[in-house]
Design brief:
Pfam families: DctQ. It contains five helices and no strands. By secondary structure, it is mainly α. It has one domain (1-160). It is elongated.
Amino acid sequence: MHAHVTRLADIFAMLGGAILFVIVMVTTTNTGAFILDRFLAPLGLPVSGLPGYEDFVQLAISGAALMFFPYTQASRGHVAVDLFVANAPMPVKRLLDHMWLTLTAAIALFLAYWMVLGMLEIHSDAAEAGVLGWPIWPFYIPGIASMILWAVVSVSQIFGDARYA
């Protein structure tokens, strides 16, 4: 199961990267339009930026940023300071690692819980992006899924990681 969870974390990170790529392309297009406007507006040919650019970037980045957390956990890329336990016996290292993995899973689920509550509130308020008019609540879904996957990766590492075998 650990390999499947890790593969899913990889897929989430790739999707997050694809979203970031789209954000970069939209930002580049918007910036290019502003530059063209500087040159063409004096000639009576104004070029406008993308309407709703800020709305799109804000909504897209909110999910994309969180989509990297499960991958980082799966690759043990989170910061760890083991200076004080570097020479500790292996059972102590394993116990501490399992405690931190459990705490990480609990924090990820805690964040997912609050994100679900936030999404439900935003949905009940029928909140929309100011310029685009898009409903905001669906953009919570990638973040919630990422937090749940982060917790699953952490738990799978407790039971399937060969780090301290």
